[in-house]
Amino acid sequence: MELRQLSYVEAVARYGGFTRAAERLHIAQSAVSAQIRALEIELGVTLFARTTRKVALTPAGELFVARARRVLAELDGARTEMAEITAVVSGRVTVGATANLGVYDLPRALARFREGHPGIALRQRSGLITGLLGALDQGELDLVIGPLHADVPPRFDALPLVDEYLVLALPVGHGLTRSGRLTLAEARDEPFVSMPHGSGLRWILDDAGRSAGFTPRVQYETDGPAGIREMVSAGLGVGLLSRAVAEGPCGSPVEVRRLHPAPVHPPIGVLHHRDRPLSAAAQSLRHHLAEIAGPRPDPVHRVTPEADAEEDMTEVPD
């Protein structure tokens, strides 16, 4: 018994005759008839009742066609799965990422993905979130990783990865480090270091300043959070940074103070365009980025800046 014989029997049953089945299969009718006759001889049963007017399944034929269709369906499923595997082990994914990803270690995540998918070419592009979303609109990027602001347009599908919150970075020895419970308003007279307009971090700073009753005086701009930390360390001003960047081991020393209330930092997540289906390679990377991030903590039990107030008071001696 051969798979092509199963296909021929199913086609004759589907289209109601040898001629139409042969036309759909793009082979000669004599080949269809010969293969089905050989199969009937092998099985010892008649599958089709042939008359001058029509071809109909016999009871044995009905049972056989039902099983043949299940076999062919399984075969089609196997082909689909193998095609998906082939697509995932090869391909290209272009990822856009903002400079401020907080605790999410994107280089490590991409390195681990590459270990399991060496045939997939990865390309990363950096920029501000507004520019990256524009590139996503134009189809220049497959995925964007960055802060998921509340006003993300609905045409983008957003998957949160990790939570983060902001702290105030100060030059070492700055007078505000001796303050007990620090509010952003207490820094109203300080020069700020921040990223340019259009960045999420600059928007958060401006919005937090408005809520505190003042407009932050940004005297120095830089392209990324690491630059903010360096400028603050050099004494050029103070700056809002994610806790991961401000307290991380890399970079020049700064004093870190938690603010009360803490400016809200959106979660870091991955976005793609809803109207542009992801390739199998991009889908695999998106799944990996979420998997490596682990489960997001329950907001009810997550340690918040307010919950850390007691620790904050003892962190810097009076």
List keywords for this structure.
318 residues, alpha/beta, Arc Repressor Mutant, subunit A, D-Maltodextrin-Binding Protein, domain 2, 3 domains, five-stranded mixed β-sheet, three-stranded antiparallel β-sheet, 12 strands, 42% helix, 19% strand, rod-shaped, disordered C terminus
Low-confidence segments, given as residue ranges, are 297-318
**CATH architecture annotation of the largest domain:** 3-Layer(aba) Sandwich
Strand content: 15-25%
**The CATH homology group name of the largest domain:** Periplasmic binding protein-like II
Radius of gyration: 32 Å
What would your notes on this structure say?
- The protein folds into three domains: 3-88, Winged helix-like DNA-binding domain superfamily/Winged helix DNA-binding domain (Arc Repressor Mutant, subunit A); 91-162 and 266-293, 3-Layer(aba) Sandwich (D-Maltodextrin-Binding Protein, domain 2), CATH 3.40.190.10; 166-264, Periplasmic binding protein-like II (D-Maltodextrin-Binding Protein, domain 2), CATH 3.40.190.10.
- It is 42% helix and 19% strand.
- It has helices at residues 3-15, 18-25, 29-43, 59-88, 106-116, 129-137, 200-212, 225-233, 243-247, 280-293, 309-315; strands at 48-50, 55-57, 91-97, 120-126, 143-147, 156-162, 166-170, 191-194, 217-221, 239-242, 255-257, 268-273.
- Strands 4-3-5-12-6 form a five-stranded mixed sheet, sandwiched between helices. The chain has a three-stranded antiparallel sheet with strand order 10-7-11.
